[in-house]
Amino acid sequence: MHTIIRDRDCAREDFVFYSRRIIRLLLEHGMDLLPFEKKEVTTPVGTTYHGLEFAAELCGVSVIRAGEAMEGELRDLLPGVRIGKILIQRDKQTKQPHLYYKHLPADIADRHVLLLEPMLATAGSALAAVDVLLEAGVREDRVIMVNFLSSPEGLRRVATERPRVRIVTSAIEDRMNEHAFMIPGIGDFGDRFFGTTDSGART
């Protein structure tokens, strides 16, 4: 699937289809990290099955815009899930992340959070989003970042600054280039997924 979507000539419908398949796997793995408790049910043949059920309330929070690509798959898995939004963009002058918008569930402090952020390059925006959650009362160890691609530099930074945040990713890239694009990379995930102007790393 990565071979298909990393191809610069991949058709958008194929990019969306295979990206969504990977996102579904990432979300299912992220949910496996949530706490469970034992539950017994009676099967159709009258015997007892010793199983599990979620022992925590959950919500999703997407980092606009690329993170919204993950919302549909999360809703397919959990149709009634609450989803918050955070908009963070880098200031063109200072290059620092700036919070422009947030709208979170009122009871988010009582929940575990799947933070939907497909690209983890420098980790600046991702860490700023984590800070928004912490300020809202979410415990650091209750944040699971669901991430499509990660750079080694970004992973190291998150591990250093927010060591209790867990990350689920489908690939760790080789490095970042001088423009902070991940190598071998995928270009701009949001542009490719939503079909807007390609701001990938073509030269």
From TrEMBL:
Pathway entry: Pyrimidine metabolism; UMP biosynthesis via salvage pathway; UMP from uracil: step 1/1
Keyword Nucleotide-binding attributed: yes
Domain Phosphoribosyltransferase, residue spans: 1-196
GO terms of molecular function: GTP binding; uracil phosphoribosyltransferase activity
Pfam families reported in the protein's UniProt record: UPRTase
The protein's Enzyme Commission number: 2.4.2.9
Domain of life: Bacteria
Cofactor: Mg(2+)
Alphabetical keyword list: Allosteric enzyme, Glycosyltransferase, GTP-binding, Nucleotide-binding, Transferase
Record-stated family: Belongs to the UPRTase family.
Entry-linked NCBIfam families: PRK00129.1
Name of the protein described by the UniProt record: uracil phosphoribosyltransferase
